[in-house]
Design goal:
Helix content is 42%, strand content 19%. The relative contact order is 0.18.
């Protein structure tokens, strides 16, 4: 039996010590300058709020500013490309979402990057559960009633969304696939005008996050029929989840999580993950986001990497069934 020489053992020990020393140095010296978090929407939205709240806490705990860089336009997927190609030293990050790392990869014929291989997952930050809403005057009391109405008026029940290819649109297409309800999609330029037309009765139903719908829910012009998350929502205590009514496959949320360029040192990924989880567990953060219908999340980098892969695999067939042609 061949036994390693003492010289070989010494070399292995030396290399191990060097690796440990490099890891410790990366942890101690990072961040060396301000960290830029690219957010793929304009200031003021849910993604922007999540990035700023967590970024402020990261700055306090890690000693350098975490600066939000809003880069809207060109599509969420294309906007992520500069981050994928940035120096992998932990000083450039992206607030990824279902748009950039779920649905988006299926809506472009050719991407300039790989949404899985070219990014290192840091952690899932938050999600906004989607709900199924109807105009308050629609003569339905349940999802079963809505499906029956759609079937009796084939082609005359419309669902609104804030745009083609977004999570609310694709959830509507998923609803069609699962239930067979012949509902028609009406695309708007944003959730707010879609919500306004739902409240006025121009369209009959909509899948959306709570935030754009709050003004109309408070006036009673729209109603929530069901929640698409595993648990119910305090704002709609009487609305069942889709799982509770036998439609567990109809689920979806708008989610946000941090990623960095691939090859970013693992020590940096783990440190930002740990500090992010601490920030997201703070009552002040949880309460602030809860008022906007946003649930905080947590977990390891490996958890988030697995989640991203599952989301990309999940939405591909739905995009194809919806007939969305890659650009």
């Amino acid at each position: 039996m061949h036994r390693p020489s003492w010289n070989a053992i010494a070399r292995i020990c030396t290399l191990s010590l060097i690796a440990l020393s490099a890891t410790a140095h990366a942890q101690q010296s990072y961040p060396a300058r301000p960290v830029r978090i690219v957010v793929l929407v304009q200031p003021g939205g849910a993604a922007d709020l999540v990035a700023r709240l967590v970024g402020q806490k990261l700055a306090e705990s890690m000693g350098q500013p975490f600066i939000v860089d809003n880069r809207s336009g060109q599509g969420a997927v294309l906007g992520a490309d500069p981050v994928a190609k940035a120096t992998p030293d932990g000083h450039t990050a992206l607030l990824a979402s279902i748009a950039s790392h779920g649905i988006g990869p299926h809506t472009y014929a050719k991407l300039p990057f790989d949404p899985v291989k070219d990014f290192a997952a840091v952690g899932l930050y938050a999600s906004m559960p989607l709900v199924l809403l109807v105009n308050a005057q629609l003569p339905v009391k349940s999802v079963a009633d809505l499906i029956a109405l759609a079937q009796s008026k084939s082609g005359n029940v419309n669902f609104a969304s804030g745009g083609v290819g977004g999570a609310p649109h694709l959830v509507g297409e998923l609803f069609k696939l699962v239930t067979g309800a012949p509902i028609q999609h009406i695309a708007y330029k944003g959730s707010a005008p879609a919500a306004a037309d739902l409240a006025s009765g121009q369209v009959q139903m909509q899948f959306d996050a709570i935030l754009p719908q709050l003004p109309h829910l408070k006036t009673g012009r729209t109603r929530i029929l069901a929640v698409l998350s595993p648990k119910g929502l305090p704002i709609a205590p009487d609305a069942p989840t889709m799982a509770e009514i036998g439609l567990a496959k109809v689920s979806g949320s708008v989610w946000y999580g941090l990623v960095m360029p691939a090859q970013t040192p693992k020590a940096i990924i783990n440190r930002v993950n740990a500090e992010s989880n601490r920030a997201l567990a703070l009552p002040e953060i949880k309460e602030r986001l809860s008022t906007m219908g946003i649930d905080t999340a947590s977990g390891s980098p490996e958890d988030f990497a697995r989640f991203i892969r599952e989301e990309i695999a999940r939405w591909g067939p739905v995009v194809k069934a919806a007939g969305i042609q890659p650009e």
